[in-house]
Amino acid sequence: DSLTGKFYQVGDQKYCEADQEIGLDRCSVCSDYLRSGCVLVGGSSYHPQCFACSECNLPILDKFYTTEEGRWLCEEHYRLTKPKCHVCQLPVMERMLTAMDRQFHPACFTCSVCSAVLDR
């Protein structure tokens, strides 16, 4: 006998067309079935559009950061959480100097007369 209908296989399990979704994982945000493609983070599965920044709600397509509260931030919104350099006003993402109750990039902490970098 030859197979006349469609069937779906997930792992070792086979499913008819009516029951095909039973074997699928569900999205940890919307609880809908993950029919095609998913993002795996921390052991949980998500639709790509459901894995989104907690601030702008846009899908996270690249680098992301997890806050202490367990929220996800895209790179742009993560940068906004960082202290700003007193000189250039850009976020200090890595090494930061604190002097006179202000934050600086090491390269921005310079002599007021000759502009020599003072972090040496």
Give a quick precis of the structure.
Helix content is 6%, strand content 22%. It is mostly beta strands and 120 residues long. Strand 1 (7-10) and strand 2 form a beta hairpin.
Can you lay out the helices and strands and say which pair or pack?
Layout lengths: L6 E4 L2 E4 L22 E3 L2 E3 L17 E3 L5 E3 H7 L15 E3 L2 E3 L16
Antiparallel strand pairs: 1-2, 3-4, 5-6, 7-8
Describe this protein's structure:
6% of the residues lie in helices and 22% in strands. The strands form 4 sheets. Strands 1-2 form a two-stranded antiparallel sheet. The chain has one helix at 75-81, and strands at residues 7-10, 13-16, 39-41, 44-46, 64-66, 72-74, 97-99, 102-104. It is mainly β. The chain is rod-shaped. It is built from 1 helix and 8 strands. Strand 7 (97-99) and strand 8 (102-104) form a beta hairpin.
List keywords for this structure.
mainly beta; 22% strand; two-stranded antiparallel ribbon; 120 residues
Radius of gyration (CA) equals 25 Å
Determine the number of helices (DSSP H or I, runs of at least 4 residues).
Answer: 1
User: Biggest sheet, strands in spatial order?
Assistant: 1-2
Largest sheet: 2 strands, antiparallel
Number of strands: 8
Mean pLDDT: 88
Q: How much of the residues is beta strand, in percent?
A: 15-25%
The chain-level structural class is: mainly beta
Percent helix among the residues? under 10%
Order of helices and strands: EEEEEEHEE
Q: Quick one: overall form?
A: rod-shaped
Distance between the terminal alpha carbons, to the nearest Å?
81 Å
| Low-pLDDT stretches | none
